[in-house]
Amino acid sequence: MSQRPGITLGETRSGFVGRLRTTLARRTEGRALALFFVVATVTWIMEPIVFTSYQVTLGRIALIGLVALGLTAVILMGELDLAVASTLAVAGVVMASIDNLALGIIAALLTGLLIGVVNAFFVVVVGINSFIATLGMLFFLRGAAFVISGEEPVRLANIDAGIAFGKPFIGDLTPRVLLFIVAFIAIQLFVTRVRVGREFYAVGGNREAAYDAGIPVRRRIFTGFMISGFVAALAGVINTLERTAADPTAGSTVLLASFAAAIIGGILLTGGRGSVFGTLLGATSLGILQVALTLSGVQVDVQNIIIGLVLLLAVISDPTTLRVVLGNARAFIQGRSEIQPEG
Amino acid sequence: MNDHPDSESTAQESSVPIAAPIIEARNIVKRFGGAVAVDDVGIAVPPGEIHGLVGENGAGKSTLMRVLAGILVPDNGSVMVDGVRLEPGSTRAALEAGISLVHQELSLVPEMTVAENILLGSTPTRAGLINTRELKQIAAAALEEIGVSVDLDEPIVRLSVALRQFVEIARAIARNPRVLILDEPTATLTPAETDYLLDMLQRLAERGLAIIYISHRIPEIFRICDRVTVLRDGRLVDTADVAATTPQQVVDNMVGRELKVDLETRREATAPGEVVLSARGVTAKGVNGIDLDVRAGEIVGLGGLVGAGRTEFVRAMIGADIKSAGRVTITVNGREKRLSSYRSAVHNGVAYIPEERRTDGLALTMSVADNIALSNRHELSRFAVLLRGKIAKFARSLADTVGLRPPEIRREAGDFSGGNQQKIVLAKWLGRKPSAIVLDEPTRGVDVGAKVEIHRLIRDLALDGTAVLVVSSDLPELLELSDVIHVVRDGRIVGTLPGDVADEKSVMTLASGGTGLIGA
Q1: B382 phi/psi in degrees, rounded to 5
Q2: Domains, chain B, ranges and CATH?
């Protein structure tokens, strides 16, 4: 039974270098890693202070990255969650509205889970495209944050806890950075080692196959949105603690930054491809870039221009994408029209 | 087993399995909308038997198998495993009963590894975590059973199409099936890979598996199958012992009589003129230098197996895809023009009706009239403004020509049946009075009535002097329409048959490589 077939099999490389090459070729983080090295090297030369005052940089990365990690779970299944930033704001306001700190935090996190459930309900049960469903939630929750807070920042009753939260906790690491690391490890393990999480890839990569194989696709999508909502709420809790107040406008830049981090990290928006580690790399590159530009005195508007360019470059420079882009460009020049013929 | 004597097809009596069947389907009926895809079909397979299932495209083979695998709920009839009725429409129940289907479309998850795909949906866990060691053990055992060695950690995207097919089979094997159903597994394989797969299936059958093998390659059926069931237009035509029948008999059963009559009427109508469309040395991905001429009033057919490079060739020829070498010209009214791009092809009177008409050929949410106006917008507008009245008149006359049903040009194209959508695509191009028309699988997924009408339209085009190039995997269609058939294999033309000489067997012989696989 074990005789070798007379057919050509996949390439097998031997030796350390060969195995390394095979492993690298299988990863999706290539461009995120390349971008990370470029950004890190340039920053090291131009603004070494970004690394010497690493606490600031890490805080920035954690701010961008936490929401992106939760988002990754949803995007892996080929769905989108545009409501993350609004969830962050609502969770903060809910937390600050409750005088007891512990109860407030629990209420905020439960709010995040509930939002995830509602999002998934619209996507899975009602059958609305997730872009539209979560766009609706985006507006709804942003409005809700203003109504609950009375359009004013809500001060935290226990300001001392907030001040303590901003202080280094273990070594030089603040609780925010520690929570970010914990979230990263948890989600990374979830989608690589836990069956439910691993099946996210099947749901996003080939949903029909997932159904046929008996994977409960709807339940997986519920889980994904709940993770995303929970992590966004966690980010809201952290924000509120650090600022000792909940601002209904909080997180206005978080939505786009977290999507950017995930995309730079090699996540395919249609699902099934990418990794949590990639998102971490994407968030790290963006964080370093932002801090470096700020320290160099570059205005926020100009920063956005640069980040936009980096995002486009990062996406185009992906080897697979690059081939497609070149093909498209060639076809465009040759005057091919796939969609409708020209008369 | 015969408690419903009237339920058994008469044709089946000629061949009763010796052992009790593992799987038996009775009186299966499946309708899609108004169309009957499977009409009162029964099939029974004992352990150790390889049962061939053949029929033209659209004969209902895949539908029947999807019913057996619990993917589709039949409108009538039942599936029994060991005499116990299977819950209809439950993939889980089918899997638990030991029915494993190897899909025609590959159903693997591209970014997951070989091992993960083999155990998709039944990943072994320990304390909630994936048990990687057990996962790899089971996957390795399944691969070993079919004798294929491949790195278990390789993501599917990095495998060749053939290896993916074998992984798909390994997945079916890993479920410890008692019934293995394969739907056209060799469509994308090379001859050597096909050989290997067929030997493998025979080994599996010797170990007591019941195998249902769907293929349109008759030689494969005669090489490995014990019995063969022929479907035509959703009905069971015959179930016979392979030893007691001949390839010709099977083909005759597949094709039926009426199309042959059609074949006779077709011949006289042609008197080809000058060469209109000419390709020299066209080379592209999957196409290795094809020369071809199509004359005015001539219908040239391109035959071959799926994946032989026919679609790739026609797309490269008309400039819809990039060609790496070759020269294509069109001659209209004695003026030769070189086709350098799709735009120039269309501009010079080439019409192209693609395989995937739903995605490539029609704007489904636009009305019939607007779709027709899209490709004729210059004649139908003045100062870049589309003229409503003119469009309606134009569209109505074209809808009438192609016999659109219902003839409502204001309806959205997506509301029409597959056959009528194809008519809309044809109408779009007819309005331009093309000098040459290239059709890729013009009647795939089209009901029989619409098929006849589309064939009539194609013939009328040729009679009007249009050069027609048809790609079709539907052999009777190809034989019926074509004045000359070029057979493509591995991106080359391997043989050319005049329409009055070509038959199913000769085309198939060329298409499949013609070696020892042919005949019985």
Answers
A1: -130, 130
A2: 5-98+177-256 (3.40.50.300), 109-176 (no CATH), 259-349+436-447+455-520 (3.40.50.300), 358-433 (no CATH)
Kindly give the confidence (pLDDT) of every residue in chain B, 520 residues in length, as a single tens digit, with 9 standing for 90 and above: 444 444 444 444 445 556 788 899 999 998 876 678 889 999 999 999 999 998 876 678 888 998 998 888 999 999 999 888 988 888 888 888 999 888 766 788 988 999 999 998 888 988 888 999 999 999 999 998 888 888 888 888 888 778 888 899 999 888 889 999 998 888 777 777 888 899 999 999 999 999 999 987 778 889 999 999 998 888 898 898 988 988 878 877 876 654 444 444 454 455 668 889 999 999 988 899 999 999 998 999 998 877 788 989 999 999 888 888 889 999 888 888 888 888 888 888 898 888 766 666 788 888 888 888 877 777 777 777 777 788 888 888 888 888 887 788 888 887 777 778 888 888 888 888 889 999 998 887 676 667 778 888 898 888 888 999 999 887 878 888 999 999 998 889 988 988 888 887 788 778 766 543 333 2
What is the SS3 assignment for A193?
A: helix
Q: Which residue of A has its CA nearest to B96?
A: A214
Q: How far does the CA of residue A255 sit from the closest CA of chain B (Å)?
A: 26
On the CB side of B509, CA atoms within 13 Å amount to 16
Inter-residue contact B140 to B116 (CB < 8 Å):
no
**What's the maximum distance between 2 C-alpha atoms anywhere in chain B?**
78
Of B112, B162, B193, the CB nearest to A202: B112
Helix pair angle (A276-295, A300-316), 10° resolution = 150
Residue in A closest to B110 by C-alpha: A205
User: Residue B63: helix, strand or coil by DSSP?
Assistant: helix
Q: What is the residue type of A184? A: F
Contact B122 A214 (CB under 8 A): yes
The DSSP annotation for A295-342 comes to: HTT--HHHHHHHHHHHHHHHHHTSHHHHHHHHHHHHHHHHT--SSS--
Domain ranges of chain A: 47-282
Give the residues across from B478 on adjacent strands: none
**Strands laid side by side in the B227-232 sheet:** B99-102, B179-183, B210-214, B50-54, B227-232, B235-241
Residue located via tokens 């890839």: A201
- Across A297-335, b (16+ Cβ under 10 Å) vs e yields eeeeeebeeebeebbeebbeebeeeeeeeeeeeebeeee
Cα–Cα distance between A159 and B373 in angstroms, integer? 68
Contact A272 B160 (CB under 8 A): no
Does ipTM surpass 0.90 in this model?
Answer: no
Q: What is the crossing angle of helices A130-149 and A84-97, to 10°?
A: 30
**Dihedral of CA B247/B24/B106/B190: which sign?**
negative
- Identify the residue among A22, A195, A223, A337 best suited for mutation to test binding to B, counting B beta carbons within 10 A and taking the highest: A195
- Smallest Cα–Cα separation from A279: which of A174, A210, A180, A177? A180
CB pairs under 8 A between A and B: 142
Q: Rounded to whole angstroms, how far apart are CA atoms B181 and B214? A: 8
CB contact under 8 A, A10 and B151: yes
Tell me the two tokens of residue B192.
């050597």
Q: Which H or E run contains B31? A: strand B23-32
